[in-house]
Amino acid sequence: MADDNAKSKLYNRPGIINKIAGFVAIVLALSAVIMLCVLFGRTDESQGYLGGFNWIENTFNYHPVMMVAGLVFCCLTAILSYRLVPMSKRFTKAMHVCFHSCAVICLSIGLSAVFIGNDYQNRNQDDKLYANLFSLHSFVGLAALILYGSNYLLGFCHYLMPMPMDYRVRYMPSHVFAGSFALFAAIFAGISGLQELFTEYGCAPQVQSEDLDTTKVYNTMNAGCQLMNSTGLVLLATAFFSALALWENHAVSARQGTLPLRTDLTTKLIPNQSSSSEIRLSHIETNP
Ligand code: HEM
User: Fold this and answer.
1) Cα 149 from Cα 282, distance rounded (Å)
2) pLDDT tens across 240-277, in order?
3) Cα(139) to centroid(ligand 1), Å
4) Which terminus of the chain faces fewer neighbouring Cβ atoms within 10 Å, N or C?
């Protein structure tokens, strides 16, 4: 395909703020993964760290790291691969598929880890059995996984299998919307998972009188509990910068002549709004 080596046309759409925000979001997502590796990977439990990685004796610890690495870091990088760096369309598409496939591998490991950890007594540090699917975290996490998985499969069928062009064009807005929403749901699942552990490990500080010096009381919490909070905040910041990276600034688009188009029923591209500025149809991604 001659068009395959052209630069991805979506690259033209984001403004400089979107691009900077995209890079910041990826760095933050990677930082969240590293923070979780420290929290679950360090073994000094007196400091509140959670015991280290061992698939046989401490299977659960792989769950948070793999889920955030897959559904937040890999998913975000895959989504933004179309927007941050100008690359050939073929390479961009390969990168998009590759990162999403890494995400699927990570989330399969992460999900197995929590079910194995809950259902096999000898796979936990405390040799207990735990219930499955009872918490808000597990419902939100499952919703994110189902949405992400369906979007992955539908994306695969539409853009990697032979499919009429008008099907591809019509499905694109839903693909973008579902993918972005799955990312935000995964971030919320990550934050709620951290909150669940925070409560389970009894992190809330005990006070004997009114808490008039919040920082002093906060510092009585051990390092592990504080790291849970910081990781949650890093995830929140990841959500903020991801939203900024994906935000369509109509003022910039109008200046660049890349206002979004809508398709009519015969998939003929028509401008979304009447504007005196010339709308360059060539900037719109029609062949994903
Ligand atoms: C992308 C992020 C995440 C997703 C999509 C996700 C998804 C899920 C799902 C579907 C379950 C239910 C499995 C079962 O009940 O056996 C679960 C359980 C659990 N997850 Fe996560 N998780 C994520 C991140 C995290 C993080 C960051 C933590 C903690 C640091 C965490 C802590 C837990 C805990 C403690 C359970 C067992 C208790 C429960 O079912 O609520 N998760 N997760």
Assistant:
1) 32
2) 999 999 998 666 666 666 555 444 444 444 444 444 33
3) 9
4) N
Closest by CA to 76, choosing from 99, 102, 104, is 99
What is the token pair recorded at 259?
A: 């206002």
Q: Cα(29)–Cα(239) distance, rounded to whole angstroms?
A: 9
Q: Is the CB of 63 under 6 A from ligand 1?
A: yes
Q: Look up residue 60 and give its two tokens.
A: 């659960």
CA of residue 64 to ligand 1 center, whole Å: 7
Q: What is the pTM of this model?
A: 0.87
How far is the C-alpha of 38 from the C-alpha of 43, rounded, in Å? Answer: 9
Give residue-wise pLDDT tens across range 4-13: 455 555 555 6
Which residues lie below 8 Å from residue 221, measured CB to CB, with a gap of 6+? 48, 203, 205
Ligand 1 atom with the smallest distance to the CA of 136 is: 41
What is the distance in A from the centroid of ligand 1 to the CA of 73?
A: 16
